[in-house]
Amino acid sequence: MTFDHDNENAKPFLFESLSRVPKPSNGYWPKLVRLNDNFVYLIGTCDDFESIEDLQNTYFNGAETPRNMSVYPVSLSEATKVQGYDTLQEVATMIGRGEAMTNDWCLDDTLSILLEA
């Protein structure tokens, strides 16, 4: 945004230029599009967590004693398409699992969940 500092009646350039933008011919401004969907993939051991709810509560509220869990954020564009997966949640789950596997997690004796962030 630029200002004309020598003219005390000058408006910011951005506002002046926006006031000149004609309204669309259909009378409606386009909707703002959310660019990304954000998720969090949680994984923890069955030795440390009794249930998915226990894993979620620990993530949201913390724990008094350290527990074995990992958190993997996943951000996807709404335009993301992967053959064989119908929803962004399915794609985010597979990405989260892949991240967990590359960090020495396995699906045996673990609990995991995908949360929308």
Please describe the topology of this protein.
Blueprint: H1 13-19, E1 36-45, H2 52-61, E2 69-77, H3 88-102, E3 110-116
Antiparallel strand pairs: 1-2, 1-3
Any key phrases for this structure?
single chain; 117 residues; alpha+beta; elongated; 27% helix; 3 helices; three-stranded antiparallel beta sheet
Task: Describe what you observe in this structure.
It contains three helices and three strands. It has helices spanning 13-19, 52-61, 88-102, and strands spanning 36-45, 69-77, 110-116. Strands 2-1-3 form a three-stranded antiparallel beta sheet, sandwiched between helices. The protein is elongated and about 60 Å long. Residues 1-6 and 10-18 have low confidence and may be disordered.
